[in-house]
Amino acid sequence: MKHLFSFFAVITLLGAQSLLAQWIQTNGPYDDNVRCFAVSDSNLFAGTQYYGVYRSTNNGTSWIRVNNGLKRLDVQALAVSGSNVFAGTYGDGVFLSTNNGASWTATGLTNTDVRSLAVNGSNLFAGTYGDGVFFSTNNGTSWIQVNNGLTNSNIRSFAVSGSNLFAGSEYWGTVYAGVFVSINNGANWTAVGYVLPSTNIRTLAVSGSNLFVGTDGGVFVSTNNGIIPSWKEVNTGLTNRNVQAIAVNGSNLFAGTNGGGVFVSTDNGENWVHVGLTNRSVWSLAVCGSNLFAGTYRGGVWRRPLSEMITGVDKLGTINVQTANIRSAPSLNSAVITKANLGDSLRIISVLNEWLLVEYKNEEGYISAKLVKDYENLSTYQETTAAQKVITSRSKATTLSITNVKTMLQTKGFHDSRWNKSGAGSLHQYVNLTKVVLDKATGLMWQLSGTNAIIKYDQAKEYIIALNNQRFADYDDWRLPTLEEAISLMEPKKNASDLCISQVFDRMQLWIWTADRSIAGKVWIVNFSSCLCDDFEVIDHAYVRAVRSAQTNK
Description:
By secondary structure, the protein is mainly β. It folds into three domains: 214 residues, YVTN repeat-like/Quinoprotein amine dehydrogenase (Methylamine Dehydrogenase, Chain H, 7 Propeller), CATH 2.130.10; 64 residues, SH3 Domains (SH3 type barrels), CATH 2.30.30; 151 residues, Mannose-Binding Protein A, Chain A, CATH 3.10.100. Helices cover 6% and strands 38% of the residues. The strands form eleven sheets. The chain has a five-stranded antiparallel β-sheet with strand order 35-37-38-39-43, with no helix packed on it. The chain has a four-stranded antiparallel β-sheet with strand order 1-28-27-26. A four-stranded antiparallel β-sheet has the order 2-3-4-5, with no helix packed on it. A hairpin with a 3-residue loop joins strand 23 and strand 24.
């Protein structure tokens, strides 16, 4: 099967569609290198190079720094054991938190450059740069150095498989780098990776009976615990082989690369497909709930639903015209791969605005939705409930107190999960005009997408100026929406992307700036992920989805 993911669009200030748009940049950490993750129940922890540990309890919608007691903020490794969270730091050893990061205390391993951590039952292991492996049986109160047979003391990564503990090392001078295994908690080590073409080990992962090794030369797999000569190269489709991180979700593998984004394999690494974050360096990966999180170099944390990368839409469609072109990209200017005929069936993998990604006769390509039965009207959305009505909204910016906002929500019937749960929202009649969405019911025209990253409020105003200077969609009267206008988009039920907004809009813009201020001097935002409005400081970050009154035409 051919995988034709050759999207033609380029990420621009105007938020052009591309694979990157399928990933959402979370609301922090900002401008930092995210080295590692750890998951504990609903808590997601991110260790960064400059600002310590961050914690999110809502899938990255918000993050808080949790560094009290953490002496060194360069965090290179995180691990969870029951209610304990461990952080390995550059130069200051291992720290322990028993309260989800609210406070940290130094363990018995100090003044050490800790690159990796692993938990196996009640045993805790720390991999260091230059000092090999340390072992603790009492949550870090005391440590024992366990390096017998370990010919390289620069330990970058660990993986646990039953009673086997694997350690991945990097070049250290002229010393051998590769994979080692211990079957007795580090008391003795055996090298098992000499035959690997690339022995600079970046990451290790276990999936079932398979051990995967990510190196600067690609991915390798062993089905017998690394015993020579069992290693097999599995890099088909992996266009960037500098692999920094591997995450496992059931039978699915994800690989984060240095400068090439993220790849997925559903067949134990035999084949890989690129799933976005093109040109980004991904240093860490983690599966939390139904999402994959990617920690990047200087780009913070990004998130994408697992279902988008693994299952897709996966429905059957039928051609409704005599002949239909299936193309290499979602554009009439792209090459025709093959043609389908009236009545032919095809598998619909995913929907991209007015285009469908489909599989037809073992080939993948794009087809205009209007050529497929039941998808002809994909560009026009009219979503109503019996309780909905057309609601007109104020277009001039103002200052609103919380009381003002609550009154407005209840008077107009807008939905807000905190202040007006029973609100049915406004009736809409959306028309997808490619770059913009016209709501015939309210007379407003919206950007289909918006900014492809979260930005500060001053930057949001600069973005609007840039839109108008460039006459985005041939208009120069774009503006930030008022709170009334922005929350009029709120739907009372979440869509398939887990957002309270019509699926006609790009799903990247989770929360957006408005033009309205709060009494406290903050700025009101609308959050489609949490289905509510809130006020942000001007130095906080949000997306922009610009609006204009469709009756005006400059």
